[in-house]
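User: I've been trying to design a sequence by hand for this structure and keep getting stuck. Would you show me what you'd pick, starting by listing the structure so we're on the same page?

Assistant: Good idea, let's start from the same input. This is the structure you sent:
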């Protein structure tokens, strides 16, 4: 069972395994020897499914790639880029697939922000073929983007996906994603690029929308300005960890990624409080990279004791707190669905003094133009730094009202 646990932890989809022993069994002595380590072999998709996928892509007029977390797990970003370029297909990332495609690439449609109607839905509506790469239904509920159940879907991954009435692929290409994409690319000619004019028009609208308030001086701060300043302060491979809450939505929409696994968003279990321990883990894996933890005040207080862990480990992470003294995403959903908020307000400690009580550095923003220089200063500290940022949460509902308009080009 120990050997099985290690094998399952390493296979696709990888992750922790829990092995529990009854107390009487745990107390027993044994002379057993560990079983030999098994090599985890990657499986290749069969040739027939590769050929059928090529045929479906060639016969489509407006294909669209949705890149999920499997692209990152299987290190298939380079193959994704090459296929996108050769076939002329735009790439849309899920929140958990963020970083699959360099957002500076002309074929990048960035990543999905609001799971409901946002600009990405315009592109999906236009597509006559969805090429789902390393996608899991928990990343973006298919009922949201395939409401009419009429989308033709190819599912590429190492494993089969869960199906429901809104996600019934016409073809599954099951095998190592890097290998599958490379073989698809070899069979698609250079002269078969698709027309992406409509998708490029969608991209122009996204850029126009995302650029609002990026350089504004409004205070409390607009989330657009915060993520614009974050991008200016961080390098290509520095890491941002977003907690669960409205900060996650804004991170997905606004923060542009240039390399894989540089903006991590939990959109599966959606566990509040993930950001600070996630940042600690990221710093352990990549000690030479800058790591920034993005939190709502509610999410931060759920695991703020882990600041002590980061201090004890001698880490230099930066924690940014979106401070509005409420559970912003819960209020946002209540206002959207019921028109009123209930039970979301709370009070916060003095985050500067709270940081100092751990031995960390504490900062409080008093005007928008302070954030970028203060962030750069914090990134240069050789310890944990916490930045308290009063946030304009009215932008949450403003975004909803804006997206209710006719936003598709």
């Amino acid at each position: 069972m120990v050997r099985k646990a290690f094998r399952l932890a390493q296979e696709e989809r990888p992750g922790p395994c829990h092995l529990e022993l009854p107390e009487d069994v745990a107390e027993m002595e044994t002379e057993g020897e560990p079983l030999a380590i098994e090599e985890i072999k990657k499986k290749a998709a069969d040739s027939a499914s590769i050929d059928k996928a090529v045929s479906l892509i060639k016969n489509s007029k407006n294909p669209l790639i949705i890149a999920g977390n499997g692209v990152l797990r299987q290190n298939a970003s380079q193959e994704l880029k090459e296929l996108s370029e050769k076939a002329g297909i735009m790439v849309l990332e899920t929140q958990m697939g963020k970083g699959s495609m360099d957002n500076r690439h002309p074929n990048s449609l960035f990543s999905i922000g609001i799971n409901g109607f946002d600009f990405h839905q315009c592109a999906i509506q236009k597509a006559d073929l969805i090429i789902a790469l390393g996608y899991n239904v928990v990343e973006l509920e298919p009922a949201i983007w395939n409401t009419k159940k009429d989308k033709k879907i190819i599912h590429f991954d190492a494993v089969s996906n869960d199906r429901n009435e809104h996600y019934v692929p016409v073809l599954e290409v099951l095998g190592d994603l890097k290998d599958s994409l490379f073989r698809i690319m070899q069979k698609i000619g250079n002269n078969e690029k698709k027309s992406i004019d409509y998708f490029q028009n969608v991209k122009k609208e996204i850029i126009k929308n995302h650029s609002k308030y990026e350089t504004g001086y409004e205070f409390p701060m607009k989330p657009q300005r915060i993520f614009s300043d974050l991008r200016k302060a961080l390098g290509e491979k520095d890491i941002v960890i977003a907690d669960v809450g409205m900060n996650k939505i804004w991170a997905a929409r606004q923060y542009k990624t240039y390399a894989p696994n540089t903006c991590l968003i939990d959109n599966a279990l959606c566990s509040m409080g993930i950001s600070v321990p996630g940042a600690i883990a990221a710093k352990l894996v990549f000690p030479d990279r800058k790591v920034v933890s993005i939190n709502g005040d509610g999410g931060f207080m759920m695991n703020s004791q882990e600041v002590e862990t980061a201090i004890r480990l001698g880490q230099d992470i930066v924690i940014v707190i979106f401070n509005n003294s409420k559970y912003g995403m819960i209020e946002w959903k209540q206002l959207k669905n019921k028109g009123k908020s209930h039970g979301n307000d709370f009070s916060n400690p003095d985050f500067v003094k709270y940081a100092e009580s751990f031995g960390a550095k504490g900062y409080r923003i008093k005007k928008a133009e302070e954030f970028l220089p203060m962030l750069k200063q914090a990134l240069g500290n050789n310890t944990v730094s916490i930045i308290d940022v009063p946030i304009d949460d009215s932008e949450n509902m403003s975004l909803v009202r804006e997206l209710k308009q006719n936003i598709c080009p």
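That's my pick for every position. To get oriented when you compare it with your attempt: The chain has a mean pLDDT of 94. The chain has two domains: 47-204, 212-402.
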